[in-house]
Design goal:
The complex is a heterodimer of chains A (112) and B (113). Chain A has 112 residues and is mainly β. Helices cover 0% and strands 54% of the residues of chain A. In chain A, strands 2, 4, 5, 6, 9, 10 and 11 form a 7-stranded mixed beta sheet that branches. Chain A has a 4-stranded antiparallel beta sheet with strand order 1-3-8-7, with no helix packed on it. The chains are: A mainly beta (112), B mainly beta (113).
Amino acid sequence: KAGVTQTPRYLIKTRGQQVTLSCSPISGHRSVSWYQQTPGQGLQFLFEYFSETQRNKGNFPGRFSGRQFSNSRSEMNVSTLELGDSALYLCASSQGDQETQYFGPGTRLLVL
Amino acid sequence: DQQVKQNSPSLSVQEGRISILNCDYTNSMFDYFLWYKKYPAEGPTFLISISSIKDKNEDGRFTVFLNKSAKHLSLHIVPSQPGDSAVYFCAASAFQGAQKLVFGQGTRLTINP
């Protein structure tokens, strides 16, 4: 089976712009979670989608949003980018509750 | 409030010896624990997991031990190999909000030949 794929792998944006990141889960996986990794805060949970519904949300401002499509693919959007949004954004998929989450390679976002 | 802590930022071990990575948690609602390994510029790779109904789980060279009363888990790698050099993260989740993993800060493991 193909693993979790994320596009794009690298992205450079400027403050105030918005960005959309994409994640394709492993075939058959219905749950997609997003995480942000920064040197200062480590790996932090953003949100999780299951069957097109957001089930869990981390402590991030409303500028961070996401959605899931009927084929389980997911996108996350960050509006009004700030310098502190520079990070590695990781997507993980799993079959269901408390099933192992498998991570994609991540999208590295740099905000200038 | 860091609910999952890995107090050793780095660990250096001789090839062939045992590597022991430690993790402590504070939230008693956590009932599922995982270890991931991460190389630079890649996503975390799943290694091994354990549910709170067990105190040990083994998979090849990797063994995870869970001490619920101490809220402590550890990952043992034996024998350690150069390819094991990476950053190791422990993660935890509670049944409610099960897909929300809470990660430790990671431990950089270096295996010396």
